[in-house]
Amino acid sequence: MKAIALLAITTSALVGHLSGATSPQPATASTPTPAAHEPSDCAGGEDALVTTKLTPERLDGGTMSLGLEIHHHFEEGASLIGTVELVDDRGKRLDRSELPARQIAIRGGTRFAYATPRKLADGYYRVLVSLLARGTASRSEDFSSHETYLHVERGEITPITSNEWLTQSNDSLVFTKP
Amino acid sequence: MTKHLVFVGLLAAGFVPSLAHAASGHVTGTWKNYQNQGNYCDPDTRNCTSARYLKTEYHTYHAISNTKVYVKDQNGVVIGTGATNASGYFDIVWNRASTPTSVRVYWQFEHKDDRFKIRSEGNGVLAKWTEPVSVSNGGITSVGTLYAGTSTAISGLANIYDGADRMWYDALNYSGRMQDVFTGLTIRAYPEECPTGCANSGTNTVKLPADAAYSPQARILHEMGHIAAGKSAGAAMDPGSYCYPAETTECESGWSSTSNEWRGVALKEGMATFFGDVALYWNGALDPRTCLSSGECGASGTIETSAACTGTVGRTAIQMDRYFWDTYDDHVDGDDNVAEPYYAFFDTLAAIPAGTGWGEKSSYRGAGNTVDSWDSFHSWEWHNAMLNHWSGAAETEDIYFQNCMGTF
Q1: Is any Cβ of chain B less than 8 angstroms from the Cβ of A32?
Q2: Is A22 at the interface with chain B, CB within 8 A?
Q3: A157 to chain B, minimum CA–CA distance in Å?
Q4: Fewer C-beta neighbours within 10 Å, C or N terminus of chain A?
């Protein structure tokens, strides 16, 4: 039931993304009054050249399908390669898939799908995506990695937050050998 | 005589049994982590003179040094505290009324002198810990080498900690002002409200997204740079707008080091990045670079370059970063005849007069506390501050123009 509720939330988020939701822009210009004597803040760091949204989409016969939406912000076309790995909370790699190489248009995007292996044992899992985008003309590279987390209990797969991963999984337990 | 009587009195009051049953011992070990941060310098592909983080360190196990370590009993009660040395080694004495059934060793991502610590999105303690270990009264128990992360179980938190550690020991620590004021920073992992990272020196907090762990220069180093700047200046020095050319602060878009910004924002962001650059490159570096990437920075991220000044000038963070770098480095390129110490930047920030007049910290404001100069505090005001307010009185005009600050 919990998984279904989460699925509904993430699906609606995905629909919103596909329908072209963008960063909100101010409706009107106004003259703000900053708080006096407030030390300087950073309202946000640099935007990534490649942005990724890794979204659980559906459960099907004991596997979870995830949509991988990738957008790049190069001022030129780019080639993209990458991998998707499924690792448990003790570092055991259970699956590794290479994403097929793709060409992306200027400021374009692409989409991949990844399905977890069937019949995952109960426990906590990390889906790790590594991407390398290379500008077609400049050859400039952008390497990035992205993660999302899953919990399996009695065979039911549920997406969990990074905080749940950090505080509930065995990721907190140290390793005694590399 | 009086002291003797007091001691006898304490014994009579029942302290003898507890002393007789007190237990203590040592727990020793070494903390290590798998290094996965990008932004290293590869000597096989470029000049890495004075680079502080080389590719030879990438994907290796490194010591987690100068960090607090706790020993907790079977009930989770702290019975011993210590810190690792430069090699990651610790030797902690535990004390307890009786010998614990077992202990665990905890690392809670805390700097030994409280310069910084990592907490959860809700400010809770995050930790790495061992399985239960048996100890004996009077004994020395070695737990061996403890790995916070491995090559297949990479720890983002431990990598962020290493970035913060580099920022402190290879950069900020060289400023006396930072030694005085940079303390108690909390780094939150990973609240969703800051998808590209953010910093607030008033609350002494940095918030990082999960994707930040392996891109140090644009994330943990940059955000700690904001904290350092804010603590030095003690006041906001620009309207905080990323909305150029709109005169509003309501937009939510982030920024790029190469996109046009209000000049005050470009200065602030370029300065935060520069403060972090120094954690990876010292002033003799010949090919320092900066970028947002979990790999090596490409040539487009060079900050030691003579860029062609075309189009709009003085509005990008990368231009500001290059201007600050030329102020700091000792490499003569073009008209670069300046080599000022790292601490000069913090001391200049502190020396800028308070007020809303031109060249003063809140120069972006006018009467009634409203914003009347969206471009302030800008790069020429900074130039004048280094010349007229900092005790070192550095003239940086040549490199100001060399790095496309322009006139306006």
Answers
A1: yes
A2: no
A3: 21
A4: N
Measured between alpha carbons, how far is residue A73 from residues A70, A106, A139 in Å?
10, 7, 14
Q: What is the distance between the alpha carbons of residues B318 and B324, in angstroms, rounded to a whole number? A: 10
Distance CA A172, CA A174 (A): 6
For residues A146 and A84, the answer to whether their CB atoms sit within 8 Å is no
Predicted TM-score of the model (pTM): 0.89
Interface touch A43/B240, C-beta < 8 Å: yes
Tell me the C-alpha distance between B16 and A174, whole Å: 39
Cα distance from B186 to chain A (closest Cα, Å)?
15
In this prediction, does ipTM exceed 0.90?
no
Token pair for A158 = 């549920």
CB-nearest partner of B292 from A26, A29, A48 = A48
What's at B261, amino acid-wise? Answer: E
Verify whether the Cβ–Cβ distance A41 to B198 is below 8 Å.
yes
Measured between beta carbons, which residues in chain B are less than 8 angstroms from residue A142? Answer: 292-293, 295
Higher pLDDT, B403 or A40: B403
Measured in angstroms, the CA of A112 and the nearest CA of chain B are apart by 19
**With an 8 Å Cβ cutoff, is A141 touching chain B?**
yes
User: What is the token pair recorded at B132?
Assistant: 């239960």
Count residue pairs from A and B with Cβ separation < 8 A. Answer: 213
Mean residue pLDDT of chain B comes to 92
DSSP annotation of B243: -
Give the span between the Cα atoms of B201 and B183, in whole angstroms.
11
Task: Quickly count: other Cβ atoms within 10 Å of residue B244's Cβ.
Answer: 18
Give how far the C-alpha of residue B125 lies from the chain's centroid of Cα atoms, to the nearest Å: 19
Unique residue bearing structure tokens 């009634």: B368
B28: closest CA among B88, B100, B99? B88
Residue B176, amino acid: G
pLDDT in tens, chain A (178 residues): 333 333 332 322 222 222 222 222 222 223 333 333 344 455 678 888 888 889 999 888 789 999 999 988 778 899 999 999 999 999 999 999 999 999 999 888 999 999 999 989 999 999 999 999 998 888 888 888 899 999 999 999 999 999 999 999 999 999 999 9
